[in-house]
Every structure is written in structure tokens, then in C-alpha cells.
UniProtKB/TrEMBL annotation:
Name of the protein described by the UniProt record: LysR family hydrogen peroxide-inducible transcriptional activator
Keywords: Activator, DNA-binding, Transcription, Transcription regulation
UniProt xrefs under Gene3D superfamilies: Periplasmic binding protein-like II, Winged helix-like DNA-binding domain superfamily/Winged helix DNA-binding domain
DNA-binding is among the record's keywords: yes
Gene Ontology molecular function: any one: DNA-binding transcription factor activity
Protein source organism: Algoriphagus chordae
GO cellular component: a single term: protein-DNA complex
């Protein structure tokens, strides 16, 4: 028994004529006739008395048609409910954000998002990239906000913007006197990086064309905080790379240097599981983010995106 077969018998009851019923269902008359006959054979009951003119349902057929109409009505209501749910932002949704994005981007877009979408509650969790991917695949997380590309077949990526990497230096460092700076000038053994597991670490090493760092600072610092690395640099311990949003509007800009064009950048994207249907949520978050960041972050062609996986 199929939904189409139920639609055919209801149409036949409405029009009491095979050709007209078939036309209303956009199928051929032989196809409709065959499907009605198959349904009757499957349930072992004649739904229509074909000897009467016009066509009439049998006594049992009337009961079956009553049920069929009820089922089709409920199916229609279910489809309408699903469509409404897809377009609704009402409810609670989980957003996973990597630690090198959340302290800088969330304050920029979150207040406007909350104001524009009062019916939506975002439960935001700081998570590393691997955790976000895992929970998206399990269905325990709705949306992720992180650096891409991920190259995960089960994940859909929605690129948002391209954030430049800046060189953060101690005062009086020789690089501060240079007008032109390229990644090849960097010494991987002088760079402070985040702990393993952070994609930002892998991106920095990729910029330096290095797989690891071997510093002689006299200590090993396992950190997930860009701010901690910056404070160490302030005390003359090496140098580091920072995402531009981490230093926007701060006094530290005097000890920052940009790389020559094309600047190395990280791609920041929203990510969801392939079967995620709440596109209206993606559009709402994306809109709020794009309105909160510098327009130049959206010009991909002027940058060099860093692949890190």
C-alpha cells in the first residue's frame, strides 16, 4: 500500500471516472487503473463496483475511503508541520565554537543576533575542532563555528570570511623596522604556538612551512590561549601569530606587522551535518556575523588561504 494508491482511490471516488481521476493525479489512466487493482488485490477487498454507472464504491470501499481520506489529511498536515519547523527559529539550538574564535567573534555578532531573534536560544560551547566534528556526526550539536576546510564528507561547510594572520612582536624587535614581511622570514623555533589539538597551531606551522617547533626558551608551555602567548611575547619571549580579530582596536597594534600581499588567512565557516535541515538558522547566524565584521574579510581573492589538515 502506497500514498499514491490512496490518492488514486480518493480521486476515483471524487470523480467516479477513471480518465478524469487519472488526469487530476497527473498519471495515465492505465497506470491509475493498475494501481487501484493492485491495492484491491493486496487488501483482498473490492473498493469499487465497476458494474455500476457511474462507478460506485462498495460498502467496504466506503469505509476504506473514509480511512484513506483521514490518512492523506494527516500526511498533508505532517508535511506542513515539517515545512513550518524548517522555517522556524523558535527553540533551543547548540553552537560549538573553537577557542581561537569565540572570545573575538562572539562579542561582535551575538548581541545583534539575540536582539533580532528573541525566540531563539543559542547554547554556546567552546570546543576543539575534533570535538565539533564528532558531535555533529553524532547529532548532539546543531552548528559549528570554526576554521575550514575540514575535508569531512559527512559535514557541510558554509564559508563566512577570511581572517588575516598578523605577526605579534616584542618591542624593539628587528621585524618592526621592516616594511615588507613574508612568512619565509619567520624562524619556527622562535614562534610561540598553542598546544596540540588546536587547529590554530597547525595553521601557524603551515605558514612557517614547519611540522614542529624546537624553541630554546627554557620551558614548555602547553596553552590553549592566544592571550597567554601575547603576554609572553610582551616579556620578550619569542613572537607569535595572532588572528586579526584578537587585536582589533587594541593598543598592541604598534607591535604588530602585516605580511605582504597576498596575506595568509584562515577561512572561518559555519559547519553542519549533511542532513541538517534548519537552513533558516544558518542564514540567521551568517547574516549577523557578516554584518559584524570588516567588509575586507569577505574578499577572498586578495588573500592566501592556509590549508592545515
Amino acid at each position: 500500500m502506497t500514498i499514491a494508491q490512496l490518492e488514486y482511490i480518493v480521486a476515483l471516488d471524487n470523480f467516479r471516472h477513471f480518465v478524469t481521476a487519472a488526469e487530476s493525479c497527473n498519471v495515465s489512466q492505465p497506470n491509475l487503473t493498475t494501481q487501484v487493482k493492485k491495492l484491491e488485490e493486496e487488501i483482498g477487498v473490492k473498493i469499487f463496483d465497476r458494474d455500476t454507472k457511474p462507478l460506485q464504491p462498495t460498502v467496504a470501499g466506503n469505509l476504506i475511503l473514509l480511512k484513506a481520506r483521514k490518512i492523506l489529511k494527516e500526511i498533508s498536515e505532517l508535511k506542513e508541520f515539517v515545512l513550518t519547523e524548517k522555517e522556524s527559529l523558535e527553540g533551543e539550538f547548540t553552537l560549538g565554537v573553537i577557542p581561537t574564535v569565540s572570545p573575538y567573534l562572539l562579542p561582535l555578532f551575538l548581541p545583534a543576533f539575540v536582539k533580532e531573534n528573541p525566540q531563539t536560544k543559542l547554547v554556546i560551547r567552546e570546543m576543539q575542532t575534533a570535538e565539533i566534528i564528532q558531535e555533529l556526526q553524532r547529532g548532539t550539536l546543531d552548528v559549528g563555528l570554526l576554521a575550514t576546510p575540514l575535508e569531512e564528507k559527512s559535514i557541510r561547510e558554509i564559508p563566512l570570511f577570511y581572517e588575516p594572520f598578523l605577526l605579534y612582536l616584542p618591542e624593539q624587535h628587528p621585524f618592526l623596522n621592516r616594511k615588507h614581511l613574508i612568512p619565509a622570514m619567520l624562524d619556527p623555533n622562535q614562534i610561540l604556538v598553542l598546544d596540540e589539538g588546536h587547529c590554530f597551531r597547525d595553521q601557524i606551522l603551515s605558514i612557517c612551512n614547519s611540522k614542529a617547533t624546537k624553541n630554546n626558551f627554557g620551558f614548555e608551555f602547553q596553552s590553549g590561549s592566544i592571550e597567554s602567548l601575547m603576554r609572553l611575547v610582551d616579556k620578550g619571549v619569542g613572537y607569535t601569530l595572532v588572528p586579526e580579530m584578537a587585536v582589533m582596536g587594541k593598543e598592541e597594534r604598534k607591535i604588530l606587522r602585516r605580511f605582504d600581499t597576498p596575506e595568509p588567512v584562515r577561512e572561518i565557516s559555519l559547519v553542519v551535518a549533511n542532513n541538517f535541515t534548519k537552513n533558516v538558522l544558518i542564514h540567521a547566524i551568517r547574516k549577523s556575523i557578516l554584518l559584524s565584521i570588516p567588509e575586507r574579510f569577505q574578499k577572498e581573492n586578495q588573500y592566501k588561504m592556509i590549508n592545515w589538515k
